[in-house]
Design a protein that fits this description.
Number of domains: 1
Strand content: 5-15%
Number of strands: 7
CATH superfamily: Vaccinia Virus protein VP39
Number of helices: 13
CATH architecture: 3-Layer(aba) Sandwich
Helix content: 40-55%
Radius of gyration: 18 Å
Length: about 300
């Protein structure tokens, strides 16, 4: 995760949370997850400094929500394919394996954007994987430093794109760490980029307050303790305030910010999930996880 270094808020404190959500993906078959996780573990064992380790957050007991993180990843990939995206930029990209996965196709240009320290570490991870696993150079994968809240940073990163082709801007897991005014600033940074290139913004981060909070509390009291630690660590305030009462509230907010919205659900990829089987998780639990958030595919409003 990333954000502006010039703000009074220390957005770099969000970065370590990417490791926690990434750990959930080790229960999946998502390509390059194991390779990236192994690189993190090597760094941990060597004592190397890291900006993307989940300091102080214990993963024990949290695996039950792995299907949520798996579905979140898969629904983005599915929607990217549906819109035919070949120029993609992921904001607050963190540890995502998506860049490595999708750039196997030489026709896809993929940009990862995150804070400088995160990007520096991610470059080393990618270089090690390319060398050790002999997957071939990824000259169509670009890792750029910048903020998801700054139009200039996104526009600069997008300079790798062909201006004659539409783009897809994506993010995964960021919005819950942003307060409502910060969410608006991010939308305002994205809008002019889409107006220049054409295309879509895909976010699976439309968290539904009652569904998510009640669901976590029902699964385990561990989640309540973890949430409090994350709120304090990231400076995001009360997470519940960053969620939405329902999809209608979120839709109204983003329409006011200049977007047309098409809504999707996590359940659209339920049949692709492998983590419930690996975890031996009952279907009713997995089904409830799919209700925690909605997915918005957003286009700039036509005048």
């Amino acid at each position: 995760m990333d954000q502006s270094q010039n703000s009074t808020r220390e957005y770099s404190a969000i970065s370590p949370t990417s490791r926690s959500s990434f750990w959930m993906k080790t229960f999946t078959d998502i390509p390059y997850v194991r390779e990236i996780y192994d690189e993190l573990e090597k760094g941990k064992q060597s004592g190397a400094e890291s900006k993307i380790r989940d300091y102080g957050i214990n993963h024990v007991g949290l695996s039950s929500i792995a299907p949520y993180f798996e579905a979140r990843y898969l629904i983005i990939n599915r929607l990217l394919k549906e819109v035919g995206a070949t120029q993609i930029i992921e904001l607050a990209s963190g540890l995502t394996p998506r860049g490595l996965e999708l750039t196997k196709d030489p026709n896809i240009t993929f940009i990862e954007l995150d804070l400088p320290d995160v990007i520096e570490e991610k470059k080393k991870i990618v270089e090690n994987i390319i060398r050790e696993h002999k997957i071939g150079d990824r000259n169509n994968l670009y890792l750029e430093a910048g903020s998801a809240l700054e139009e200039a940073d996104i526009m600069k990163a997008a300079s790798h794109f062909d201006e004659k082709k539409e783009i897809a801007i994506i993010n995964e897991g960021l919005l819950r760490y942003l307060k409502r005014d910060e969410q608006a600033k991010m939308a305002q940074a994205i809008l002019p980029v889409l107006q220049k290139f054409g295309g879509v913004w895909i976010t699976p981060d439309i968290g539904i307050r009652d569904k998510m909070l009640a669901g976590q509390a029902k699964l385990s009291p561990i989640f309540i303790d973890r949430t409090k630690k994350l709120e304090k660590m990231t400076g995001a305030g009360n997470f519940s305030d960053n969620l939405f009462a329902d999809a209608a509230e979120a839709k109204a907010i983003y329409e006011k910010l200049g977007f047309e919205i098409e809504m999707h659900t996590y359940s659209e990829v339920s049949d692709q999930l492998v983590s419930p089987t690996k975890l031996g998780q009952p279907k009713e639990i997995t089904d409830s996880l799919m209700e925690w958030s909605k997915v918005f595919v957003m286009h700039p409003k036509t005048k």
